[in-house]
Amino acid sequence: MYTPRILLCGSLKKFSGAKVEVVGKISFKGAAERGEFIVPSNAQAADNFTLKEGSFKIFLDGAEISSDELKKFLDGAADYIVIENHDEYLFRFRELYALKLIDRVITAETLLTYAAKNFFALNNAVKIFNLIRKLKVLDVDAFFERNDYYMFPDAAHKIAGILDADYSHFYTEIYRTLDDCRFKFFDALLLTAEREPEEFIDTLIETDSLSEKIFAFVRKNSALEKFLANHENAFEKISRFPAVNGNLMLLKKFARSDFKIYVVTHKDAKLSALPEGYKIIHAGHALAKKNFGYPGDDTGENISRLNPYLNEITALYWLWKNTRHDFIGFVHYRRFFTADEKNFLTTDEARKILREADIIVNGCEFGYIALRDWKTMLSTRPLAEHVIDTIRKFIAARQGDYLTAYDKVTNSFGVFCYEIFITRRKIFEAYCEWLFSFIIDATKEILATTDIASSDDPRIYRVISFTAEHLMTVWLIKNRLKIKTLPIIFRDDV
Length: 494
Known about the structure:
Helix 12 crosses helix 13 (about 380-400). It is built from 19 helices and 23 strands. The N and C termini lie far apart (about 60 Å). The longest helix has 18 residues, at about 380-400. A 7-stranded mixed beta sheet has the order 9-8-7-10-11-13-12. The chain has a 6-stranded mixed beta sheet with strand order 4-3-2-1-5-6. A 6-stranded mixed beta sheet has the order 15-14-16-21-18-22. The protein folds into 3 domains: about 5-115, no CATH class; about 120-250, Rossmann fold; about 260-490, no CATH class. It has about 500 residues and is of the alpha/beta class.
């Protein structure tokens, strides 16, 4: 918890209930004592003001000190000079400005309004803004809102903020909590609130998937400054930008490079040359009559034996439970993403896309009949309706917030096809946690209430997978992710 260390000019009356640490009592002798009420009309007037030697004196705990000595004190023991009386602040403004102290002198009201959670200096706000204005940044602590940047609606920026107010014109996007932007990715995060090292570490963990870079204000002589100095090897690089009473530090985390795109198959895919980062996985390996030499989905925690009814979803479950890739893709042995309609998408191309988008999927396809009727045509109406309604029942019981989205997609004319995607780990895990909270138990109930397990007609035993395939669309529209659609290369030779 940040506790402002102050040199107090006045009394503590206005700080009732506020947490401050008074490290000294300060007083001045100058214009106010001469009966002069000096308020500069603008900064230029203050810049041109020259103090006569001996016309302004500073006293710390009763002893006279120079302005240079005071600056040193402010760079170590104290954060601010706080003048309790607003009129006296106006009296002193011009003289303190001339001594280059004004960025550290504030009123009691300013301290209570602007410096309750972090060190406050307008010069720091300007420096930070100029450093990050061309980046896609998440302002975690609403720094710019607290520094009145909501007054700059035309500023060229890509800054999102976490704050309670929705009247700010400054941010491109506003989130209420960190959890609301958990699927996003930013060029950098801005952390300016004062945190103890343990709190800072917790925040880094909580925001780990949101960015590879952190801009943090680190107050001079703080515990956090000492902690970072002793743990520089925890980051790939630390850059320091001098600021008022500290440094703005750019902490570059070690880049996440574990990127894998899995190609799910149930037959010999005849893929002798795949781009780097691709790997084949055999879905339904537990029941396979042939082994093609590919890793299967029947090791570790798995549902491989449900493959006849869930198809590639059994491989998806295996990836969720048995891998930890930072980026993960899921394509089919016949369907691959492409950026140029000639070659398979590379992991480098995918990584670049995912700096702006949350997930890559195949483009939405529209039909002439509703999805519900299309599923009926793939199977039989009574069976398809039973499957659709059973899955709906489990979603209503376990993921009730998604019921409207499920109904909308089921009765719509468009869907993101094939359940293929490439995304960041956190998004992948969130989707799997949602999907497998109900689809396995729904499948078991459908098997128990129908005879599809005894059928050798793929139109019958695959009916669950026909419906399950559109569940990713349900999850995507509910979570309003930033989607990048890419065409696919379709291989019809296998």
